[in-house]
């Protein structure tokens, strides 16, 4: 591919195909423990224009934090600069300072630091990730779920369900003290065990100055001695590095339990090694993990072993204030869910539902949105509330949620009714008229292909380009609960098992209902490039006939496209400005 090629003329299908082939080879070589071949292929990837183009596209076009500036103050860049950046991109062992900002923690008065690299460093980090991730996806333990392609919080919860199903067990519920701030750099680099060029570059990122402010007006500059800037808005490589740092904990605990502790307890040595290891349950999502075991003596010894491993491997320790050893019958929280073992008819059943904290946060957020939009139209208020409510419901629908959803619906409705009844004006003095305007009688609403008749659904309407547009606020109870199937232990998007990943994309893509339905309808392929969707893709809905040309805003006129294919189609449809800067946020 010529380096003089214009950005808009890049053949992304060909670029993806060539890069995917190289990544699959890295994955297979890593499984075969052929280190020399892994490093040779990784050098080829970081030197290829294909990988550089995709790295730049992901950080400037696809990533949510693309419009967040680093210390240089630069946000969006035009297409000409994207191509120049891709052409010169190289892992040169250098790293610019990271801009630090502080954002509030959800539901708390505390703030957490966020590190934001420059656009160039983000692109370099993505380039490094494209080479490193396939190697480590072949190595990572089966019950590691955080920040890995094709895996989610629901897999971690499903893993715990399988561990607790049919019995009560003792649970180690704890947290690593300042995990991502205190990871030992030397131990991390030793564990990474990569080739010189990659190691030098990652070492530079780990030691990069942290700046509060910008280059031209810094408020504070300091250099980290330990830790990875995991919570950085644009810190693309850091979640992978954190997973690498914590890799091995599950294997160590199960090996220790099966070979050292299990025989010591006097239990039969004839029990197969596989069954001994399966006696303890382990589920990790980033730095959050839960361990289960049959006896309280087991879990207390496991806690000690966790401390030993963390100290020796990555220089970390458990947070003493947050250590809890409980029986699963007492219940515990993990990733927003509440899990508890309940005995019925002589048998234990594991019950999973949204935690009280998660429900309180949702109600508080709804109250905040309504409070800030007291004078907004019902149409605009629904546009603000619907994604929050439906997104929350989609996350918790893989649980016993229907009773919780119904109760939350009433709490939300109470706030909406109070909002509506405060909006008295000329001709709208009585509550009857206000009710009819905002909660019309006798209407039927279609949500996800089903009809719902309810006289207390908030509805809105507005005029857009001379046409009347209507919307409504769905009820949480309309979101049907489902059963989640945990991902296969060592499955990875790099394993070329296209059928398996196509089936998971249809059911558990994490996208909204419309996109999921379109993916299934399109047989898991993008309409423009004809390539299969993967868990790494950014997918958007597109109007087949643009609305600017009279296309209807209906499902029949929608299709699911890769974000980059969507942008190219928008250019051809002339529905966006031809100014390249305008496309960055489109």
UniProtKB/TrEMBL annotation:
Keywords: Chloroplast, Plastid. SMART domains: HNHc. InterPro entries: DNA/RNA_pol_sf, GrpII_Intron_Splice-Mob/Def, HNH, HNH_nuc, Mat_intron_G2, RT_dom, RVT_N. Residues 84-339 form the Reverse transcriptase domain. It holds the Pfam family RVT_1. SUPFAM superfamilies: DNA/RNA polymerases. The keyword NAD does not apply. One of its GO terms (molecular function) is nucleic acid binding. It comes from the Eukaryota. This is Reverse transcriptase domain-containing protein. It comes from Sykidion marinum.
């Amino acid at each position: 591919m010529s380096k003089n090629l214009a950005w808009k003329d890049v053949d992304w299908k060909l670029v993806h195909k060539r890069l995917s082939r190289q990544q699959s080879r890295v994955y297979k070589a890593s499984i075969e423990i052929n280190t020399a071949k892994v490093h040779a292929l990784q050098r080829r990837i970081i030197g290829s224009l294909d990988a550089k183009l995709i790295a730049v596209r992901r950080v400037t076009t696809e990533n949510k934090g693309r419009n967040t500036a680093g210390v240089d103050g630069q946000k969006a860049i035009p297409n000409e600069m994207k191509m120049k950046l891709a052409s010169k991109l190289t892992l040169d062992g250098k790293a610019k300072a990271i801009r630090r900002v502080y954002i509030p923690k959800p539901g708390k008065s505390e703030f957490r630091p966020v590190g934001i690299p420059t656009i160039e460093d983000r692109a370099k980090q993505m380039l490094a990730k494209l080479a490193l991730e396939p190697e480590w996806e072949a190595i990572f333990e089966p019950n590691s779920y955080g920040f890995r392609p094709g895996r989610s919080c629901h897999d971690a919860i499903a893993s715990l369900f399988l561990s607790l199903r049919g019995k009560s067990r003792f649970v180690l519920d704890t947290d690593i003290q300042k995990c991502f701030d205190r990871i030992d750099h030397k131990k991390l680099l030793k564990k990474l065990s990569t080739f010189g060029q990659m190691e030098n570059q990652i070492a530079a990122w780990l030691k990069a100055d942290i700046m509060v402010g910008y280059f031209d007006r810094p408020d504070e500059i300091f250099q980290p001695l330990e830790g990875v800037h995991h919570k950085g808005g644009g810190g693309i490589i850091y979640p992978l590095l954190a997973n690498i740092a914590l890799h091995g904990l599950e294997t160590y605990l199960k090996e220790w339990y099966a070979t050292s502790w299990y025989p010591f307890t006097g239990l039969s040595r004839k029990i197969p090694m596989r069954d001994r290891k399966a006696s303890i349950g382990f589920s990790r999502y980033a730095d959050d993990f839960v361990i289960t075991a049959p006896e309280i003596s087991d879990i207390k010894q496991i806690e000690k072993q966790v401390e030993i491993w963390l100290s020796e491997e990555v220089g970390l320790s458990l947070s003493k204030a947050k250590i809890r050893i409980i029986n699963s019958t007492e219940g515990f929280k993990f990733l927003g869910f509440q899990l508890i073992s309940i005995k019925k008819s002589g048998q234990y059943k594991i019950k999973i539902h949204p935690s009280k904290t998660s429900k309180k946060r949702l109600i508080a957020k709804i109250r905040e949105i309504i409070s800030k939009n007291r004078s907004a139209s019902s149409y605009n208020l629904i546009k603000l509330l619907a994604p929050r409510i439906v997104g929350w419901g989609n996350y918790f629908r893989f649980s016993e949620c229907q009773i919780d959803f119904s109760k939350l619906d009433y709490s939300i409705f109470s706030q909406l009714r109070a909002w509506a009844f405060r909006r008295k004006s000329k001709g709208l003095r009585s509550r009857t008229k206000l009710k009819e305007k905002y909660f019309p009688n006798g209407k039927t609403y279609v949500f996800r292909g089903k009809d719902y008749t309810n006289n207390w659904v908030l509805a809105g309407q507005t005029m857009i380009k001379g046409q009347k547009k209507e919307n409504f606020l769905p009820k949480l109870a309309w979101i049907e609960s489902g059963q989640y199937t945990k991902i296969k232990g060592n499955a990875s998007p790099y394993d070329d098992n296209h059928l398996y990943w196509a089936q998971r994309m249809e059911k558990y893509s994490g996208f909204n209902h419309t996109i999921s339905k379109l993916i299934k309808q399109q047989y898991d392929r993008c309409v423009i490039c004809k390539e299969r969707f993967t868990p790494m893709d950014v997918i958007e809905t597109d109007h087949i006939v643009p609305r600017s040309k009279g296309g209807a805003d209906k499902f029949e006129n929608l299709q699911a496209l890769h974000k980059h294919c969507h942008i190219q189609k928008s250019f051809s449809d002339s529905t966006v400005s031809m100014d390249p800067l305008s496309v960055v946020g489109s």
